[in-house]
Amino acid sequence: MPAKRARGASRQPAATASSTSAAAKGAATSSVLVHRCRFVDQVPDPVESLQYDPSCSRLAVLRANSDIELWSLSEGGWFREAYVPGVPDTPVRRLALGSRTASHPDGRLFSCGLHGVVTEWDLARLSPLDNYDSLGGAAWSLALHAGSARLAAGCEDGGVTVFGVVEEGLENVYRLPARGGRVLSLAFSSSGGQLVAGGADGSVRLWALGGGGAARHTWRHTCQFVLESEGRKRPPLVWDVLLLPDSLVVTADSSGRVCFYDGRHGTLVNRFRSHEADVLALAATGDGSHVFASGVDHKVSLFTPQPEELKPHQQPLAIFNLAAPRPPRQSLPEGPS
């Protein structure tokens, strides 16, 4: 009589084979391709100020978080030459870019902000080189005239501080007295002998350098006028100003208008309601014959003199509007599924 086998002894190899086959089948069926998408919520900080140096094709960009970028143009296009991260709790408002010279091969860069400090930057080390007090509180505007080596800062108290730009830094500080509200915009004339300032109270003020002798370095107040409020309780904010040849002053304000004034007498030459919202920036060609204006309504306006045969007596300027389209939304391409 054959010996009895232990219970379950003969089934052990079959059970082992069955479990191995099931595990292999489960592993084969559970192997799937997984595509993981991770989206970076990157919101670029808006641009606060732009300064372009045509002599060497460089552009200084200031962002709302106080980051400073320096872009240069080469044969391959624009590239970012330098980047200075913003310092926390240091609200920088405006930039001024100087050209390259033999003593400053990297150029010169100045900034001002609501902390009341005018800073010169070391573009080789990407760090502050020196700081200067604005002498008027928060500094809202900055203008540099390289030919006359002058730097002007518009302050919270309504005054303007004019610095002399020398090789070692800034000196020969001249303080223009405070008149009206904070100075939101500044511009030199092409010769550097005149200065115009636009204020938060709608006022526009002009200064000119004195004559010969000891007065040639003295600024004197020559004209002042206030933009029309058009029924509003307060005049508009003067966001930007230009000083063209023949003392023609161009203003851009918060009511969407671009105005042309005679800077010698403060009289209105022409006024255009060219934008539907605030006009924030002005630019002009070298000879002052063409003026560009841009604002928050995605539109660029060009002002240019009309041809002599078509120019009426009351219309010295013509306007052309260019609508800038809104940037389309971009989506990431889908990966393998």
Q: What is the end-to-end distance?
A: 64 Å
Beta strands, count: 24
SS strand fraction: over 45%
Unreliable residue runs: 8-12, 309-316, 327-337
Sheet/helix structural class: mainly beta
Integer-rounded radius of gyration:
32 Å
Please state the average pLDDT score: 83
How would a textbook summarize the main sheet?
Answer: 4 strands, antiparallel
Q: Any idea what the shape is?
A: globular
Which strand order does the major sheet show?
A: 1-2-3-4
Helix/strand order, N-terminal first: HEEEEEEEEEEEEEEEEEEEEEEEE
Number of H/I helices = 1
- Into which percent range does the helicity of residues fall? under 10%
What features would you describe in this structure?
- This protein has one helix spanning 12-29; strands spanning 47-53, 58-63, 68-74, 77-84, 92-98, 108-113, 117-122, 127-133, 139-145, 150-155, 160-166, 169-176, 183-188, 194-199, 203-209, 219-226, 238-244, 248-253, 258-262, 267-272, 279-284, 291-295, 299-305, 317-323.
- The protein starts with 11 loop residues before the first helix and ends in a 14-residue tail after the last strand.
- It has one helix and 24 strands.
- The chain is mainly β.
- 32% of the residues are buried.
- Helix content is 5%, strand content 47%.
- The strands form six sheets. A four-stranded antiparallel beta sheet has the order 1-2-3-4, with no helix packed on it.
Descriptive keywords:
four-stranded antiparallel sheet; 5% helix; 337 residues; single chain; globular; 1 helix; mainly beta; disordered C terminus
